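DM between two lab members

TW: hey, do you still have the Citrate lyase alpha chain entry open?
JB: yeah, one sec
JB: this one, 512 aa:
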Amino acid sequence: MKNKVARDIPDNILKQMTRKPFNGVTYGHPIAQRVAPKVRATTGRDKVLSSIDEVVAKTVADGMTISFHHHFREGDYVFNQVMRSIIDQGYHNLTLAPSSLTNVMNDIVVEAIKKGVVTNITSSGMRGSLGDAVSHGLLENPVVFRSHGNRARAIEQGEIKIDVAFLGVPNSDNAGNANGMDGDAAFGSLGYALIDAQYADTLVLVTDNIKAYPNTPASIKQTQVDYIVKVDAVGDPEKIGSGATRFTKDPKELKIAKTVNDVIINSVYFKEGFSFQTGSGGAALAVTRFLRQAMINNQIKASFALGGITKPTIDLLNEGLVARVMDVQDFDKGAAESMKDNRQQQEIDASWYADPANKGAMVDQLDVAILSALEIDTQFNVNVMSGSDGIIRGAIGGHQDAATAKLTIISAPLVRGRIATIVPNVTTVITPGDSIDVVVTEIGIAINPKRQDLIEQLSHVPGLPIYTIEALQQKAEKIVGQAKPLVFTDRVVAVAEYRDGTVIDVIKAVKD
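TW: and the structure you got?
JB:
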């Protein structure tokens, strides 16, 4: 069956997952019943167990769904410790449901798959050795990729039923009151973990810092927590923001960032009280710097900044250029440390951030979103999941969620090395073209023809070259040549959902 973005979705996948094919970005006003976790009443004063082995033996059984968060990013120590215990104790047929999978987790997950410990995975994304293994068919069942907002929706509606959540935290008291703001491995917002804490049947906190009771402020509360385990270290704070917050000196990235800024400030959305979301990485941070100067020059202040937060965004807050920061994840130490002392930096959970099935997500209020891409095609569809070789090497993250902004901008180079970024058809559709308004490259921009208002607003901006998306694709192809078609088998190794739970695309095993 072809869905709304002309992708063939096998009938057996839709039947197996009880899903519908993607049918567009309009949601209507669905009514859904939320689930509730089981609650095992806890008596006594202390929930602290002696070891991870002990808590795994107490909580895990074959066939369960277990979850983790990825706020420690590449500095995570908890995931591997828990998974090692699970493997060594001989559990099987588990579903792994973390908010995302980072490179530091890859090897042990591959081992768990090979030993039959893990037979299903749902996550925001995967990379490296794990992405390569899954792309070659190692996992028995297809991975299900969900955006951050869609994961929250799926948990709330029981599509992901978490039996045990293992959440690493930089502090907790002996009853389970915890936050992400204090301790040697503080990472700031616990936004993605808060959904797990609310809906898991059993909640285990792993920490290296037991504080005096009652520990406040408490993002996770003792009413939610079953067990606490103290370990020597939960994470390396120096690796939490690894690679995410570099200030670029690359002329191409700087040119793209300046052009993104030109698009924003010449649109009707650049006005007093506008809101925005930027990502991490060199080009995104450069956009923040250009935008800061434009706000000063035009005496414009933003109402809020959203999403994964970096120190440059916190600097805007401290300068009074942004009134509020709505923080679901911190990408560097500066942003994480700020949350402890700044009341205008609000921790939000993933549902508040981006769930399309609640009573109003923050992304619904976004004026401007600046996002990246691995590929964009001539229908403005975006791929952030599969590489040019067909291997899984990315994450949906909040891409689909933030793309609902009034002005969604994709910033990307025309080519990367000898690989075109703008192509006739993306390898995997993750964010539909109907959500994308402007594509910005170092040589110029393309505006979605559906946005005639933006074409009119931007067509007279001096020094802003405007092309059709087809023209940009042809320029990219002229530089690198026509790519050879990728060859896949018929086996589906992953399913990409849209943020409403419909199937937007499938990923098939690469053919060796």
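TW: got it. The CA atoms of residues 53 and 85 lie 6 Å apart. The two ends are 27 Å apart (CA to CA).
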